[in-house]
């Protein structure tokens, strides 16, 4: 995936293609990698996560690992064989997700594809730095270190230099001078709302950040963002997401890149929101951006449509055209969907995994008796349908729908049903309709605002009463008058 290129991850740019090989080079492995296996700390375990979610996350982990291996120079067949031999390592990646995002799972929130990818890519990169060209051996033999022949001379640990650089950079962040103060750029960032641990976390991922000068790099970028209308409170979030922004020249890179994107249709009045949503957009190469734009043009989007997509969903640039966008487009075409319209309405669909996210939703509706054509109509009418969790959204709402007095075809007409809150909208609204004895269309029950819903329901009740009165009057008339 091009989004994993050396441009996006400059720390990998010094590694020549092909250094990640399957040769069984025997090097000692540090034990620390294998402590967690598929376990968590005390209060949390895999048993609380639904099996369907675990299976989906395992497929996501496989997809991320496959792309990562191919970007390190492995052929498709070799990458596939490695993954097939690395079941325990895949489980370890899933447990890593649960450990990093423990709080999300405790409240029942599933991770998005981008959150999964970001968490695993950074972890895989750290393993690559640590183990170099024996990482394949690590994966296949996990959790046990690969068997090695005793070398005549023990080589030094391969990650010693890298670790020392990271430690030195992190130490630099926390150091205080003779006056008991942090370095100027650290003080400046603290004043912006960042704390030392946050800055150390950034430095751990991107050591160069610790050496950026205040006046030469950090301050000019921050002031530029503020001039664009970015709230001061958003600056820490932006820098945490993409610290590399501070290492890019304003005059030679950032401003020309923004002008280039504006020419492609990005709304220049919305830069503050665009950068907050996806600050990495300004760090991609023009060729990478152009590749995505060419694809959007190819599927039939207008220039105006492309510009609006880039403004509303700038992270679409991070999706690989060949590994993500094109296969997803073909999948939706197989359902009879107009890809250009779907991309415009809900580009987030194209960041989802076909195997872990899209196919399970399609299969769910097929199992409920809907045809492929009907499913295509549903996603065409409501682009966000496939972005919902099966376990947390679609299944419970479907089960409640079965208790409602509507034909299944109503969901084809109004798939937006799945976008409303079950507890706060669907159940209370339907309870009022049921209690009144009125009959409303499904979209009337849910899509109307509170006042309009009340008015529509009252009008329906008045009409019912009027119709009933007419029928009663007719029943009371003498038979000769009826004639």
Describe the structure.
Pfam families: mTERF. The protein is globular and about 100 Å long. The protein contains 25 helices and no strands. It has helices spanning 51-71, 76-84, 87-100, 102-106, 113-131, 135-141, 160-174, 184-191, 196-205, 214-227, 235-241, 250-263, 271-277, 286-298, 303-312, 321-334, 339-345, 354-367, 372-381, 390-401, 409-413, 422-436, 442-447, 450-476, 479-482. With 483 residues, it is mainly alpha-helical. Helix 1 packs across helix 3, helix 1 packs across helix 5 and helix 3 crosses helix 6 (135-141). The protein starts with 50 loop residues before the first helix and ends with a helix.
Short structural description:
The chain has helices spanning 51-71, 76-84, 87-100, 102-106, 113-131, 135-141, 160-174, 184-191, 196-205, 214-227, 235-241, 250-263, 271-277, 286-298, 303-312, 321-334, 339-345, 354-367, 372-381, 390-401, 409-413, 422-436, 442-447, 450-476, 479-482.
């Amino acid at each position: 995936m091009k989004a994993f290129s050396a441009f996006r991850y400059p720390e990998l740019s010094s590694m020549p293609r092909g250094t990640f090989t399957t040769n069984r080079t025997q090097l000692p492995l540090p034990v620390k990698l294998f402590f967690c296996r598929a376990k968590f700390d005390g209060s949390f375990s895999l048993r609380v996560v639904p099996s369907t979610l675990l299976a989906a996350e395992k497929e996501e982990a496989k997809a991320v690992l496959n792309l990562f291996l191919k970007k390190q120079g492995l052929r498709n067949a070799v990458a596939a064989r490695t993954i097939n031999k690395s079941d325990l390592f895949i489980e370890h990646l899933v447990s890593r997700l649960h450990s990093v995002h423990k709080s999300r799972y405790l409240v029942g929130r599933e991770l998005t594809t981008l959150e999964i990818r970001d968490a695993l890519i950074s972890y895989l990169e750290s393993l690559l730095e640590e183990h170099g060209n024996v990482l394949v051996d690590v994966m296949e033999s996990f959790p046990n270190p690969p068997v090695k022949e005793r070398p005549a001379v023990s080589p030094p640990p391969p990650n010693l230099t890298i670790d020392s650089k990271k430690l030195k950079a992190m130490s630099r962040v926390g150091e205080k001078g003779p006056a008991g103060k942090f370095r100027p750029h650290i003080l400046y960032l603290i004043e912006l709302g960042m704390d030392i641990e946050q800055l150390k976390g950034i430095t751990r991922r991107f050591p160069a950040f610790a050496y950026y000068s205040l006046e030469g790099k950090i301050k000019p970028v921050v002031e530029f963002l503020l001039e664009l209308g970015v709230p001061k409170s958003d600056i820490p979030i932006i820098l945490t997401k993409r610290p590399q922004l501070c290492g890019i020249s304003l005059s030679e890179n950032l401003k020309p890149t923004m002008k280039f994107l504006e020419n492609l249709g990005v709304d220049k009045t919305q830069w503050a929101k665009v950068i907050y949503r996806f600050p990495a957009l300004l760090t991609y190469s023009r060729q990478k951006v152009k590749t995505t734009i060419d694809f959007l043009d190819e599927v039939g989007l207008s220039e105006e449509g492309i510009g609006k997509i880039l403004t509303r969903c700038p992270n679409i640039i991070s999706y690989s055209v060949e590994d993500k966008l094109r296969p997803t487009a073909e999948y939706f075409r197989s359902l009879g969907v107009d890809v250009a319209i779907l991309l415009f309405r809900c580009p987030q669909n194209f960041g989802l995994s076909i195997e872990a996210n899209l196919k399970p939703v399609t299969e769910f509706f097929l199992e409920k008796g809907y045809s492929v054509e009907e499913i295509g109509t549903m996603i065409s009418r409501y682009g966000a349908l496939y972005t919902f969790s099966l376990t947390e959204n679609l299944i419970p709402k479907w089960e409640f729908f079965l208790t409602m007095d509507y034909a299944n075809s109503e969901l084809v007409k109004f798939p937006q049903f799945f976008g409303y809150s079950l507890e706060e909208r669907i159940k209370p609204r339907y309870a009022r309709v049921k209690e009144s004895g009125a009959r409303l269309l499904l979209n009337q029950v849910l899509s109307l605002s509170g006042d309009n819903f009340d008015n529509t329901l009252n009008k329906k009740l008045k009409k019912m009463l009027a119709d009933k009165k007419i029928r009663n009057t007719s029943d009371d008339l003498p038979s000769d008058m009826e004639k």
